[in-house]
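Forwarding the complex inputs:
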Amino acid sequence: MKKKITLKHIAKELDVSISTVSKALKNSEEISRDTKEKIQAFAKLYNYRPNNIAVSLKNKRTKNIGVIIPDIVHHFFATVISGVEKYANSLGYNVIVCLSDESFDKEVINMEMLANGSIDGFIMSLSSETQQKGDYNHIKEVTEQGIPLVLFDRVTNSVQCDKVIIDDQLGAYKATKKLLDMGKRNIALLTTEDYLSVGSERTRGYLRAHADSNIAVNDKNIFKMPTMEMEEALIRDFIANITLDALLCVNEIFAVFGLKVVKELGMKVPEEVSVIGFTDGLLSKYSNPSLTSIAQHGESMGETAAKMLIKRIEDESEEEEYFQTKIIEPTLIEREST
Amino acid sequence: MKKKITLKHIAKELDVSISTVSKALKNSEEISRDTKEKIQAFAKLYNYRPNNIAVSLKNKRTKNIGVIIPDIVHHFFATVISGVEKYANSLGYNVIVCLSDESFDKEVINMEMLANGSIDGFIMSLSSETQQKGDYNHIKEVTEQGIPLVLFDRVTNSVQCDKVIIDDQLGAYKATKKLLDMGKRNIALLTTEDYLSVGSERTRGYLRAHADSNIAVNDKNIFKMPTMEMEEALIRDFIANITLDALLCVNEIFAVFGLKVVKELGMKVPEEVSVIGFTDGLLSKYSNPSLTSIAQHGESMGETAAKMLIKRIEDESEEEEYFQTKIIEPTLIEREST
DNA sequence: TTGTACGCGTTATCAC
DNA sequence: GTGATAACGCGTACAA
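Prediction (whole assembly, four chains):
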């Protein structure tokens, strides 16, 4: 087992000082060609690499980005991670992923863990429990310490920081409008309780589309799921007890399951009932019939968030405190279900 | 902006030495009650937390685990991450995720980046390109440095280390046997080239099941995809040019798409053609009809891997070099497609 | 009971 | 051209 080699080892072996080695490896002009060559050859031979931890301690820069998301199994979050990863890696940053599991406590613990020097900045999406409680002190503490933060997707006005979101209202509006224009008049909406920022925005878009078309909304056609959890029975009940000619869902899991229920109840898709979901993931693409859906562009969201964060991290002039909110436009992907 | 507070600050503020502060915060017996109380109160007030980086440098322990996977969008890998995360976090470890994107080079770069002190150990699944090249030097270097490593799912015999896999051969065997027992005689197999360890194992299971039942295999019924990529045209061609009464696929994306093609070609599922896939993810669960599939238990795989790794990390007695391979038994989940 | 000194690995400054 | 020294923040053996 050959242990990791350090500057000290090289120095001793070659009988020079540590600082000489350090400079030589940086190709400093101060060092003679001979010495440099000797040291560089030796370092290459033993595959010397500076210890990241020591460098971090010295520079007060870790080159790590902390990403906290509620859940990794949802396709949307996975794509965001992927986007963050790509951009961050290209600039030499690592990505530390923590899952809050939709729990306030886990979110707090993870943030604290990372905030003590492990990372240079955060990218996060709030857990549903956090949004429900409306308690953002753990986040404020972090920003007050001067650690840059970018919130995405599930955000809040209570925290001053950079944000990346999609225009959820517009997404829902577009989808609803399309359905209305197709002549649908009984569009069921399967959304979440209002404390989830995205749920309430999407509900708003649905309502606005109706208002714009001067079409009344039947309250019975709207169902707000208590959490992001799939509760099949609730969805079954909802759909079975209304008459609908279209179904709009706030995520693709709800959508694909809703689609299934609709078919089981004997309605034809898309002939009798059209279905549209949010998140253009594999589920939408490969469901049967394939789902028309509102793409949230997770990868580009992740990339944008990473870009904003790294800019903040590397920007020395910590003067200006104006924060930006980037809004990504959702896209309607039409498939077989409409 | 209140900067992060250090022992030094506290010491200066309270006019004691740094070591006194350090000891007091650890509730050392050496320090008088008065001093301890004073220091602890002050620390709590200013929300003191030790700097992880400094502690890491000192202890040569980062409490970070590096996870390298080919891809995060595949449901299977996402569940593994989730399993690793849960177990690791419960013991105070962070998880650093890197994606190799099925690329050898990215895999090497990421490993090197993390190996220089950022993590205490690796959990990884080989990229397809790495398996194809059969070049494992970057991995051997890491293990030779004494960094613990656990390989999962896509593994190789060329590297000596702990491993967690599912019994892929058995999984395919079970599925094939079931189909044969149902009277199916033209079972198409949609797999990958043999260089992918899981693909070749699954193919083997398929063949063994036929042999055990004394049923000849028609070579035309086996198609090996060149990569893990979905290439819709290839799958279409394959299925259109054979006669089949069942379809077995090595992952759920292939399966759900295969299902679609079969239906488009006018065959009824499951009446005329049965379909079974690997990976019991959301796609399988919510496809239409829902897919019978072989569960790989990703979450428990992740948890097992994390458990093995952390044990290795925390085990001081680096004597014994016997490595384990944990084999998780796949489960056949029966749904509507068979 | 408290403080001094040292080391973890690196880098930057300054002295020779 | 080379080397000694200090510093990043923490913890601990040892000295006072």
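Residues 6-8, 18-19, 22-23, 26, 50-51, 53-55, 57-59 of chain A lie near DNA strand C (CB under 10 Å from a C1').
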